[in-house]
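pasting for the record
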Amino acid sequence: MDKKVEPKQGFHTVDGRAASKTAEELEKLRHEAHKHLQAKQWHEALTTFNELLQDDQEDVDALLGLALALDRLGDYQKMYEISLSAAQIALALLRMNRMYEALEVVNQSLALDPDFLLALETKGEILRRYARFEEVIVTMDHALQLAPDDVSALNLMANALRTTGQFDRLLEITQRLMLLAPESPLSWDFHISALRGTSRFEEANEVVDHILEFDPTNVRYWMFKADNLYRLQRYREAVSVSEHALKIDDEYPPARRIHEKAMRMMYQKKK
């Protein structure tokens, strides 16, 4: 005999009912519910996910499905009663890598409230994953107007600015990140990129040295240090540092390229 799943004490679903089903029945019901979602049969999906929630009020999959059905039916009051806003639905979809649906839902959320920070940040992350960086910048500009010190929004903006090569703007953002989140490796990484992108190689080297104190085997940062030295025309030092990088990882192509360039320039300078 199938084991019965005990219902949560005192829990009632959206339509106020409570019940319990076998594990086999629940599996069949979940499959049916998702088929209704795929077919855009919102009323049927609502009923089926509601049945699943009779047995477990914390069933995340059923809550998400129920909220999606309610959202499509425009029943926002009930959607909020189960504590899932459209932005939260979009975030859940994003975590499940259901990108297209997540973007669709988050746009619905922003249509209801254009200044909802969670929705803006969720949209920014979706656009980042789609490599639509100019749109990320526009979205994060709006987010940062609302919350200038929000670290998540600053990180999304920094990523988009670095990718699009807007280093002057990136430097402004990273200076704020360094004040707000100095313990974050991401802040330091973005700041190095901003300094290097604006040709501030001496400052970039100081930051790299600081990171290498805590992470002395990170070949990428040794490569940055060698490259900074090369650009400062300190070729002998660049050779030495790039050799150190290659001792850590002798197959790391950027370090090998810098080593070869620095060696060539060092011998030319001798001549």
